[in-house]
Amino acid sequence: MTWNAQLEAATAAWRELCRTLEATGTDALERTLTHDEIDLAEGLRHLTRMTHLVTVGSVENEDSHHPYLWTALDPHRKMGGDNPQGLYLSAPINGTDTFRLHGSRGSARWISIIVAQSGTPPFGNALFLPDLDVTDDSIEVLLSPEPQPHNWLRTDERSTGILIRQFFGTPDQVVPMELSLENVSRGHLPPEPLTIDAAVARVRSAATRFAAMLPMMQGELLDKAGAENTFDTDIGDPTSTSGGVPGGNAVTARWRLEPDEALIVRVMPPEPCAYWDVQVGNGWYESFDYRHHFSGLTCDGAHIDDDGTVTLVLSERDPGTANWLETAGHREGHIAIRWQLTEELPVPETQVVAIGDVASVTGLPRVSPEQRTRDRAALQSSFDARFCR
């Protein structure tokens, strides 16, 4: 290919990406959930986050011959109801080579190791914490088309990546896994220089992903406009064969509250259930700022009523009770509960009450301002343990 042809291919790919960002992003802003300033401001930020997510995710660390783990979602790249208690890692793989994932177990309450794949559904085989062999706090998983001893994930011609999700039980118990990934079949030879064909393909992939992912995530809440403060099932089914992440699924509500109102959520967790958590976030399907706001609870951190029911409180002001989740200055947003490895998908009951009535309506234990201050400090420590290493 001549220089002029190479230049034309590069500039055409760049123009395609820029046009896609402009058209898709403008449409998203015009469909902002509310006319509140905070939603529009966070929407503009969401466009930059998604741009970063798809461009970095499509252009960098795409060589399955030389893979390494990196943070897939984090405080600055959010989408799809990311878990405030989570740490997400990913890396490219392929369906022909053998890959070795190894390192320390850490303290995560829930671990899932999932093969990403092309087409629908986007995820293939998976291993979950109850099924993982752990020896002396060490873990090893082999990914290959051929069977392997112990922890093995089968790959095939559709396999494109690996996703590792670590969900922590409480903010004071956060020790991330220390992991390495290697392509055993290829060894440690350095990669070849980047070619124009490969660079063009990656940039076009970023444009395609942006055009598909942005409206899909925004549409999750726009589609719930007629059922405010009422839960419904999320994408997929309890085993996530329709496109959700394997291992479980979620029930989700689009909430709307005034500053003096609280949303009471009551649900009986299913039995058995390997892990569950609840989270709140904005109208762009992002979690709130989980370093500074109470935006999530897990089965380990939530107060459970004597009859096994979980009662949650969502409000702007502190109701002075356990199980409080903050609206973080928003009038509308999403709330979701994940159930992992269960055959049931309980849908919670909801009730809107005045904030001053929360304690009497729910009977939840009281939480003092001093304890709330200590809890906020724990949020920051949890954040730093995950992302400031």
Task: Describe this entry's structure for a reader.
The chain has 389 residues and is an alpha+beta fold. Among the domains are: 1-60 and 194-223, no CATH class; 228-387, Jelly Rolls, CATH 2.60.120. Helices cover 26% and strands 28% of the residues. It is built from five helices and 19 strands. The protein has helices at residues 3-30, 37-59, 196-222, 358-362, 369-387, and strands spanning 70-71, 86-92, 99-104, 110-117, 123-128, 134-135, 138-144, 152-154, 159-167, 179-183, 231-233, 248-256, 261-267, 275-281, 296-298, 310-315, 324-326, 332-340, 349-354. The chain has a five-stranded antiparallel beta sheet, with no helix packed on it. Strands 3, 6, 7, 8 and 10 form a five-stranded mixed beta sheet that branches. It has a five-stranded antiparallel beta sheet with strand order 11-12-18-14-15, with no helix packed on it. Helix 1 (3-30) runs antiparallel to helix 2 (37-59) and helix 1 runs parallel beside helix 3. The longest helix is centred in the N-terminal third of the chain and has 28 residues, at 3-30. It is globular and about 75 Å long. The N and C termini lie far apart (45 Å).
Q: Unreliable segments (pLDDT under 50, ≥5 consecutive)?
A: 235-243
Name given to the CATH architecture of the domain at 228-387: Sandwich
Order of helices and strands: HHEEEEEEEEEEHEEEEEEEEEHH
- The backbone outline, from C-alpha atoms, is globular
Extended strand count: 19
The CATH class name of the domain at 228-387 reads Mainly Beta
Percentage of residues in strands? 25-35%
Strand order within the widest beta sheet: 1-2-9-4-5
